[in-house]
Amino acid sequence: MTTRIDIALLSAILLAPYQARAQDSKLIEEGQRAFAEHCAACHGAEADGTDMGPKLVGSRSLRARPVPQLRSLINQGIPSSGMPAFPLPAQQLDALAAFVHSLNTTAAGSAVPGSPVAGEQFFFGKGRCAECHMVHGRGKALGPDLSNVGHELTLGEIRQVLRNPNSRITPGYELLSVQLHDGQTIRGFARGRTDFDIQLQSIDGQFHMLQDHQIASIHDEKQSLMKPVAATGEELRDLVAYLSNLTGIGEGVASGATAAPSGPDFARITNPHPGDWLTYNGNLNGNRYSDLKLINTSNVKNLGVKWIFPVDHFGLEVTPLVADGVMYITGPNQAIALDALTGRQIWKYARPRTAGLIGDASLGTNRGLAILGDKVFMVTDNAHLLAINRITGSLVWDRYMPDEPMHYGSTVAPLIVKDTVITGVSGGDRGMRGFLACYKASTGERLWRHFTIPLKGEPGSETWKGGEPFFGGGATWLTGAYDPESDTLFWPTGNPWPDSDDHDRGGDNLYTNCILALDPATGSFKWYYQFTPHDVHDWDATETPILVNTNYQGQERKLLLHADRNGFFYVLDRTEGKLLLAKSFLRMQTWTSGIGPDGRPQTPSTDSPLDCPTEAANWNSPAYSPVTRLFYVVTQEQCRARRNGNWKMAAQEVAPPQKIIRAIDIETGRVVWEIPHTGSVTPKTWPGLMATAGGLLFYGDPNGAFAAADERTGKTLWHFPTNVLMKASPMTYMVNGQQFVATVAGPNIVCFGLP
Hints:
There is one protein chain. This protein is an alpha+beta fold. Among the domains are: about 20-105, Cytochrome Bc1 Complex, Chain D, domain 2, CATH 1.10.760.10; about 175-220, Roll (SH3 type barrels); about 260-280 and about 350-385 and about 395-540, Lipocalin. The strands form 11 sheets. A 5-stranded antiparallel beta sheet has the order 6-5-4-3-7, with no helix packed on it. Strands 8-37-38-39-40 form a 5-stranded mixed beta sheet, with no helix packed on it. It has a 4-stranded antiparallel beta sheet with strand order 9-43-42-41, with no helix packed on it. Helix 6 (about 115-125) crosses helix 9 (about 235-245). It starts with 6 loop residues before the first helix and ends with a strand.
């Protein structure tokens, strides 16, 4: 039997919600006319109240009342308060009740008359609203972002603020004129304010971090910068309809054309201003070296705490960025902008953490942001890449990076290359197919994706013996480096999966435990180098690659330096991936007798009962000084012993596990000096390093101290007891002619400076 469907009936069913919405809109429009006739004399034309009657916009008591109850109240009046009864015709009562209800329901949940399409045209055209406000990445960030205004305000509040902007000023956009002692006057918004300082966003969109000693007087203007909207009744109705439909940035929503970018462009990222820290490692070559030297070996003993900013997460691993006096940090699924001089919060973006995740992403781990123009970029625990306006803190676009349902997460700080954002994924210890992805910074459009695990028929697939490695690992969870001279992207990859069970993954297992040299425009291979073929130790190669141009062994070379978790320090010619040096930096090294001229590990020379190392280095950042030509890295001495067929940590057979900072001569691989850390080794505490032109190496003691040593000798010159576990890498910056050093201690960003 063939079932026939009445087309007219089907159309009626499908169109019913839209027809109902249109009918509701007409009802509210009729109610608005009835309100003007019967109610405006007491409650005001905008329902914002008069001496004769209370305001009806934004009323919590009215918000809780259903439409039938409001209808009854209007019909019967409230004699005790002086409100008369309005025994109006039923249709008019229904309309008036619907209109009053709409004044106290979020606009997105209301039936709104008018044309959203016409309202959008007015917003970006004749109304000139986009000259101050952004919607879905379009417009300017002078005033509040309106992308979610339909969920934030009621229909009545939207109407009210369009006609009388002074009736509702968004917190953080209070207008001030600040007179400074130097005679300058700055007018703008108080994005943050205390008795001691103001974080002022001036009318041109720039931040000014003002302290009380700079300020002569403050004039609170007590008004909005916005003027009442000049529009016809129809234009205003359509504008309200458009704004009411704005319910946030959805995943995959494409941004439109934006205003000219303001803030650090790629030329500035390539050649940072003095005092900038614009990438995860401070610069694109990854060397964690700063040219600042106001803090140096002669005065570092005077360092003291300048401010502390707490984040509600104990295991912070972020490295802050600083540009133009603003610091940008991350916590779990959150980005925060701070006054870099005082640590005061300017804005915060946050979304809930994702339930049901496993691995590092489930712990809330996030290592930081990237910055370009008017945006900062971060990943989320469930592998989304977000663009956030750096002035407003509002979401601009949101992209989910994977296409396949696997154990994907993300913890990496993205990297900017030209006008793109490049980032990776975590989850290699739980089974996934690693990849690196590149997105257009302005819109979030994905330009390419490079998988680290080849499938059948792809180059490198022959190095996987057994089943096809759909879940082969090779995560890309630590930030890479970029060489502008050769236009090459260098990115480290993680271990194969399963990490210790290799019964179904014979062969070298490319491209795990590698450095990948890629064309950043296409993601295509230039070359690769694999540090640990067929890894069964969980020796991710996700340790920061450092790019150095120097005279090496009598020849000018473009080098890539890398201290691997397998215990070897590598020097590669980065133009072709040729191995120049591989030398162990450990006391105990049993897994191989050395690295051969072909770059492959050789067979161990002895049958040692110990397996060394367990993990010689980790993700925490190393540093390189062009002055000393030393490579600085946190290492760990630890072995395992075989008992009853199982590997166990070998604290008795060798010395107890110990973390040691080592300075390595890049010419020879020789350890020049070291700083042993006293005390027990706590898992997952791998604080990183930073070197400066002041002759200093800053480091965190994993057991709870922040310190500075002479980069030439390793002698510790200063320390501060934080008394909490340290897991991140320090950075330095300059504001108002002062140099600061910031690091993470437990849940806190801690900033140090000179008196």
